[in-house]
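P.,

For your records, the input lines for the assembly:
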Amino acid sequence: MENLNNIISLAELPVQKSGKVINILCGGNKRRRFLDLGITQNTIIKNERVSPSGNPIAYNIRGTIIALRTSEAEKILINIL
Amino acid sequence: MGLTHESSGLALVKDEYILEKEMDNTVIALAGNPNTGKSTLFNYLTGLKQHTGNWPGKTVANAKGTFNYEDESFLLVDLPGTYSIFANSQEEEIARNFICFGEPEITVVVVDSTSLERNLNLVLQIMEITDNVVVSLNLIDEAKRKGIKIDVKKLENELGIPIVPTIARDGIGVEKILNTIYNISNSNYKINPNKVKYSPEIENTITKIENILSIYLDRSHNLRWIALRLIDSDKSIKNELENFLIENRFTSEPLEEIENIIKENENIGDEIVTTIYETAEQIADEVVSIEDNRKIDWDKKLDDILTNKITGYPIMLMLLGVIFWITIVGSNYPSNLLAKVLFSFESKLSYLFLKLNPPDWLYGILILGVYRTLAWVISVMLPPMAIFFPLFTLLEDLGYLPRVAFNLDNSFRKAGTHGKQALTMSMGFGCNAAGIMACRIIDSPRERLIAIITNNFVPCNGRFPIIIAMSTIFIGGLVNEKHSSIIAAISVVFVVLIGIFVTLIVSRFLSKTFLKGVPSSFTLELPPYRKPQIGKILIRSLIDRTLFVLSRAIMVAIPAGAITWIFANITINGASILNISANFLDPFAKLLGLDGYILMAFILGLPANEIVLPILTMSYMSKGAMLEFESIETLKNLLLNNGWTFITGLNFMLFSLLHFPCGTTLLTIKKETGGRKWPIFTFFLTTIVAILVTLVVNIIGKLIYNLI
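Structure tokens returned:
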């Protein structure tokens, strides 16, 4: 069972911590885009580094470093590991 | 008539892919994720100088080239780098449509060995469309350095397609790729790809749709692929199918039937994407073993410094400053030397030419007009470009530009624009027309327009000489000679910062007014740093950029030199046309802290910014102040003799930075936006900004001057 206390949005994931994708909270093209980046259920994503101004944040998604704006990362629910 | 590749594809891809397909050309498509070395392999095979750079989304249109191997000739088409070919961005659609409808005989997928899992996703997707897939397992040297081992035989078995390890940069493995392509093309090699297996529910749905399709379409079509696209609600495929049914007098009943099947299982689209990624993950897990025994992860260390809260911005400015400083210091001597040579040649040329007893006007136009302008353009422009471009390309090759975009994105977000605008701006440093073409990497039309309109606020190489010369004369000149080049470099950085600042303000203004909207989603890849290929950078930046830009400047300088001379020498009531026009503009120009000749030079310089300074000096010279250009000192004296002050120099720089784009750029905007509206809009917007800024600077400057 997933521990509900550990569920946060990707935007809240602290630097150098990892989380497992639970759900994507948007539909249409945006959802599509996330899926195509490899953000699918159970994918493990790590917060690699934060930009100097705190937004965007660079994540390690399936071996590639990809920066997402906070407003985007908020749409992804993860279970912090 | 069936739903042929032609009928289903040409409508979509007519403009993009009218390949000059010769009868005996075998078409090969080159696909791959961004930053995998696709363009490098393309260049290696075709010998074309396709611009490569270490940032995603560079290949926005297709490059094509031909090559021969054994007795066969091939046409190679470089597709945009994408993570997926299922989604709806422009790049992905181009790639998908070409593989689907461009009928490549073989598709070579370039794969980054250091992140196999992500790259396999694309391979598996492409395998859904076509059987003839060859994988170029690229960057194996980098993988090795990172302790990543890939079992190539096992991978080949898993996928059922040929896998060739390559280091495209050094040409390693390319021969084997060619050999494989040749063998497939000559049916010596039969490929049996292991396609992705979906869950029974999905497979069931696919089969149901396939069965319906098979009533209307013959089996030569990839029914499975069409079914998958329909499940993925690909509108273009649906429309094609609809048209086909109508044309053949069928009812649209089957479409409704298919739609009902899809509706039964809402998440099927998601599941398909997920299944492909999971399959990629599984295969990668099986064939990759990692034994990372490096003590230091240099990528991480570099990023720690380059995107650091404290050091990130200062380093960015310093790097830019150092590049400008090297450019200023390094171009000083060759510039003077070139000028000396070219102008001493002028006297010889004059001597020879005058022996022919030409009429005065011809001598004036050809020697004093055309030759002198040319000599100016070459001696002032060539050295800084030959230094600046390789240095900038070095940063690009290293992979620094995406970090700049990463660092600056917050400002762009606040301005309501796309984060990749920082990348298109960087391209503008070379040439604004190139920067505007690069805006195709931005999907959202609104944000793309903003990036296009504001690209001109980044000084292109045509304007750098002005900014460098003015910084050297009027700002570097303020301090003693020892420090002047450093101060000049800082001043150039400052001007670039003003350009970025104006870009952000104008972008925000556009976001709130003419182009209202919220920022669209965007993702920015931070690719691994790559060791720049110094030799190639030199050749590429010299040939591609420097000589290209210089030759364009020369082409424009020839007529401009002639026209300026004519304007300066045809007199009406004792005053030359140039003087009359300049005097007419003078009162307005004075408000901006400039003079009539400067404004005239900008207007005559519309075809290319490179010739603004030469036209200006020629206008001044025609008044009899100076004859030859010997050094920056001569230029300084010429300007001072014509009443220039610090404010004139400053405003000349600012006006040059902000004023209307050159003719080529305007034409590019027209082409990219598909109409006259936006180039005209850009022309007026930038000109108004330039006038406002110089006006305010002039007023403030005069006030300060009066106070002192």
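Two observations worth noting. Residues 4-80 of chain A form a domain with the SH3 type barrels. fold (CATH 2.30.30.90). Chain A has a mean pLDDT of 89.

Regards
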